[in-house]
Automatic annotation (TrEMBL):
Residues 136-312 form the Glycosyl transferase family domain. The keyword Membrane applies. Residues 798-815 have a biased composition (Gly residues). Its EC number is 2.4.-.-. It comes from Streptomyces olindensis. This is Transglycosylase domain-containing protein. Keywords: Carboxypeptidase, Glycosyltransferase, Hydrolase, Membrane, Multifunctional enzyme, Protease, Transferase, Transmembrane, Transmembrane helix. It catalyses: [GlcNAc-(1->4)-Mur2Ac(oyl-L-Ala-gamma-D-Glu-L-Lys-D-Ala-D-Ala)](n)-di-trans,octa-cis-undecaprenyl diphosphate + beta-D-GlcNAc-(1->4)-Mur2Ac(oyl-L-Ala-gamma-D-Glu-L-Lys-D-Ala-D-Ala)-di-trans,octa-cis-undecaprenyl diphosphate = [GlcNAc-(1->4)-Mur2Ac(oyl-L-Ala-gamma-D-Glu-L-Lys-D-Ala-D-Ala)](n+1)-di-trans,octa-cis-undecaprenyl diphosphate + di-trans,octa-cis-undecaprenyl diphosphate + H(+); Preferential cleavage: (Ac)2-L-Lys-D-Ala-|-D-Ala. Also transpeptidation of peptidyl-alanyl moieties that are N-acyl substituents of D-alanine.
Length: 825
């Protein structure tokens, strides 16, 4: 029967029907719960009976635990009350720890597996080209970034350990990441101690080379993952090398080589342990260390330097005694901060000459050179370049006043100085400077006629090949004492006995002019050289022959395309070699006939490797020593008795020649001692107008000769450049006798040259020896095959050419000297 009430439905679904009329019975599950509760809760005291009914206990248990199923995570904890309900068990804590660690390891493993080493940041590979003076000091840096990557072998081992001691002593043993180091850095900084980097050298290398410099968590995680992985791609030495080359050291210097130059003005190979400790300290505090030469910034810089030395001693890389010795020696104060080598003054021209030489003597392209990373050691002497510039400035200050004298405007100077025993270009003056808007290198450009300074090549060719004085006759021996007609306006004959036509008047004959109408009569070639008389050398050149004179000049060192020999003016200087080439060719006379090609670079280093092709050129025999020494003897007389007497103030043996062209459009002086050969050219050219202009009136002179301002520049420079060097003499010129005179000259007699005491005419029984002609084929290397040169109009100053090739055009068309051009002195 039913009393109208439904049977209770228990949570576990288990129900027992009570007997009719009897008390309600508990289910088995309910009885188990009640029993457990009774066991956990002992009686509160003796005699105290439970007052709660079984049904009440069952109801309470049912409310505490609505289900009989166990939960996967028993939290909050069942069967606990108060705070204990929320305290996890040790099993739960252990499980949580293992879960977190496993998740982290899984995340790291996933990140390690999926991260890839990115491409190298191209900015870290950008470098400058560094140019060095002949003494090894830095001359200039060319490039947007002051960086010169070096190999680890170029960095002294002790300097490497300066960085390792300061940054990451466990570098060679750690996996690339040092958690203890990070924690230690945090601890030291929290205590206010020395600031230490929490990153390993590997991490810093990765950050510099592959990543950006942002301070974000994702970037830091990438840094750590790549640092762990990079060891499989690069060796520890490669990583350290990359680190040293990519760090920023202050003063605009990226990489240890640039830092070494910026702070100590020397390559990294020469750094000491103490200096290396200073540079190591700059990595973390470049703003502090870069001004360490400032007394106000000195204290913190010294403290960091001492810290690095202390770390070196602590890890056993130097002894305590060594550390104390470095400390007693004192702080290695860096040089005052200076700007990167600028291109002002003569530096732009020096760099340009060196770059052109590198490209001409190697397979390095212009594009490769622009990518940077080359260390270029030059022949340029810092002291002598400065002295040459100072001498030009002194001449300008004394003679030129462009603000008040119109004639002095646009006057330019080009000069070069060469070691005649090697061909090394030690100094040059290319103009006012790139910073002044003058980009054409006057020292290494063709375009300025050399005038009478070409005459020594005429004489050398005559000494070597003789002269055909009569049609069909064999060449006759020529010496400096041979007599030729020196009068003004004489007609000139060729080897066939025909008179030369006037280039400007085909119907008339050429009447060669001198600078003055002096009636010289027949004079020796020595006297004609001393007084720069034109007519004897124009006639001599015709008798010797174009080809022989040209080849003599080429063997001495001039370039074919700068030789203008379409008229008789060729023999007296219509050609336009550069100052470098003229100084070098005169150096052939100075070195007894041995020619040395001019060179400006001694060594090129890239990526730590010395590139081939930059050894000093070997000298070759260009002419017999007797020829060179004879020409030197004649040019010594030019300085002693002729147009070059202003050079006597040098106070030591010197040989030289002045040169001035028609209408005074150029003036030269080229002179040499046994140690140095220097050429100076003066000319006038307005960039806005084409061609060279007359220098009449320049410096207040109605006529501008090579004996004046060019010789003054030469003298001032040579005096300073040779100071302290031994006074050397030239060898005595061989005695060649009278030689053969031009037809019509008086019979041989005492030499009229005032440079020597006249000697009696040889008697028939003891005739004067006649010089033996040295055919071109007998000279090592043979002759330069004669090739008729074109007859281009004379151009203005070219942009290139003296050292490497002919000019490629000038600032404007110049004057075309006619056959009656009158170079004098």
């Amino acid at each position: 029967m039913s009393d109208g009430r439904s049977a209770p439905s228990w949570p576990d679904g288990e129900y027992v029907t009570p007997p009719a009329g009897g008390p309600a019975r508990m289910t088995r599950a309910e009885m188990r719960r009640a029993a457990r509760t009774a066991n956990r809760r002992p009686a509160r005291g003796p005699g105290r009976a439970r007052t709660r009914s079984a049904s009440g206990a069952a109801g309470s248990a049912s409310r505490r635990r609505p289900s009989g199923k166990r939960r996967f995570i028993d939290y909050p904890r069942a069967g606990r009350r108060g705070v204990r309900r929320w305290l996890p068990s040790w099993k739960q804590l252990a499980g949580l720890f293992l879960t977190v660690c496993g998740s982290l390891l899984a995340a790291v493993a996933y990140a390690y597996a999926t991260v890839s080493i990115p491409s190298v940041n191209p900015d870290t590979q950008t470098q400058a080209n560094t140019f060095y003076w002949s003494d090894g000091s830095q001359m200039a840096e060319v490039g947007q970034v002051d960086r010169q990557n070096v190999t680890l072998s170029q960095v002294p081992s002790a300097v490497q350990w300066d960085f390792l001691a300061a940054e990451n002593a466990s570098f060679y043993t750690d996996p690339g990441v040092d958690p203890q180091g990070i924690l230690r850095a945090i601890y030291h900084m929290a205590e206010g101690g020395e600031v230490q980097s929490g990153s390993t050298i590997t991490q810093q290398f990765v950050k510099n080379t592959y990543l950006n410099q942002s301070q974000t968590l994702s970037r830091k995680l990438d840094e750590i993952m790549i640092s762990l992985k990079i060891g499989g791609k690069l060796s520890k030495r490669q990583i350290l090398q990359g680190y040293l080359n990519t760090c920023y050291y202050g003063r605009g210097a990226y990489g240890i080589e640039a830092a070494s130059e910026a702070y100590y003005g020397m390559p990294v190979q020469r750094l000491t342990v103490s200096q290396g400790a200073f540079l190591a300290a700059t990595v973390n505090a470049p703003s502090v260390m870069m001004n360490a030469d400032d007394p106000q910034q000195r204290a913190p810089a010294v403290a960091r330097w001492k810290y690095v030395l202390g770390r070196m001693a602590a890890i056993g890389k130097i002894s305590a005694a060594q550390k104390d010795r470095y400390l007693r020696a004192g702080f290695p104060t860096p040089e005052p901060m200076r700007g990167r080598g600028s291109m002002s003054g003569q530096i732009g021209y020096l760099v340009q000459v060196a770059e052109q030489y590198v490209e001409q003597h190697s397979s390095i392209s212009d594009q490769q050179l622009n990518e940077g990373g080359y260390q270029i050691h030059t022949t340029f002497d810092k002291h002598e370049v400065a002295e040459l510039s100072s001498s030009v400035a002194a001449m300008r200050k004394q003679h030129l006043d462009p603000d008040h004298r119109a004639a002095d405007r646009d006057v330019q100077v080009g000069a070069a100085s060469v070691d005649p025993t090697t061909g090394a270009v030690v100094a040059l003056y290319g103009g006012d400077g790139w910073d002044k808007g003058h980009y054409t290198d006057n020292a290494d450009s063709s375009g300025v006629p050399v005038g009478s300074t070409f005459k020594p090549f005429d004489l050398a060719a005559a000494l070597d090949h003789g002269a055909v004085l009569s049609p069909g006759a064999p060449p006759s021996p020529i010496t400096p004492e041979s007599l030729f007609d020196g009068d003004d306006g004489i007609e000139i004959k060729n080897q066939q006995g025909h008179y030369l036509p006037d280039g400007s008047d085909p119907t008339g004959l050429l009447h060669q002019q001198n600078d003055t109408p002096t009636k010289w009569g027949y004079i020796t070639l020595r006297k004609a050289m001393e007084q720069s008389v034109n007519t004897p050398y124009v006639q001599l050149g015709e008798y010797v022959g174009y080809d022989n004179v040209e080849n003599e000049a080429l063997r001495a060192g001039l370039l074919r395309n700068t030789l203008q020999y379409d008229t008789a003016g060729f023999y007296i200087g219509t050609s336009t070699p550069s100052a470098i080439r003229m100084a070098d060719a005169y150096g052939t006379f100075a070195d007894h006939g041995i020619r040395h090609q001019p060179y400006s670079v001694t060594e090129v280093v890239h990526a730590g490797a010395r590139l081939p092709g930059f050894q000093a050129p070997s000298g070759v025999r260009a002419m017999p020593a007797s020829t060179a020494d004879t020409v030197t003897g004649v040019l010594q007389d030019v300085v002693k008795h002729g147009t070059g007497t202003n050079a006597l103030a040098l106070g030591r043996p010197a040989a030289g020649k002045t040169g001035t062209t028609d209408d005074y459009k150029s003036a030269w002086f080229i002179g040499y001692t046994p140690q140095l050969s220097t050429a100076v050219a003066l000319f006038k050219e307005n960039p806005k107008n084409s061609g060279l202009q007359s220098m009449a009136g320049v410096g207040g002179y109605s006529k501008v000769f090579g004996a004046d301002m060019p010789t003054q520049v030469w003298l001032g420079y040579m005096t300073a450049a040779l100071q302290g060097q031994p006074v050397l003499s030239f060898p005595a010129a061989p005695h060649l006798g009278q030689g053969t005179n031009e037809n019509g000259a008086p019979s041989p007699g005492p030499s009229p040259s005032p440079s020597a005491t006249p000697t009696p005419s040889p008697t028939p029984s003891a005739p004067s020896p006649t010089p033996s002609l040295t055919p071109c084929s007998d000279i090592p290397g043979g002759c330069v095959s004669p090739t008729p040169a074109p007859s281009p109009s004379q151009t203005g100053v070219g942009t290139t050419g003296g050292l490497f090739g002919p000019g490629t055009g000038g600032q404007g068309q110049g004057v075309a000297p006619g056959p009656s051009m009158r170079p004098r002195n």
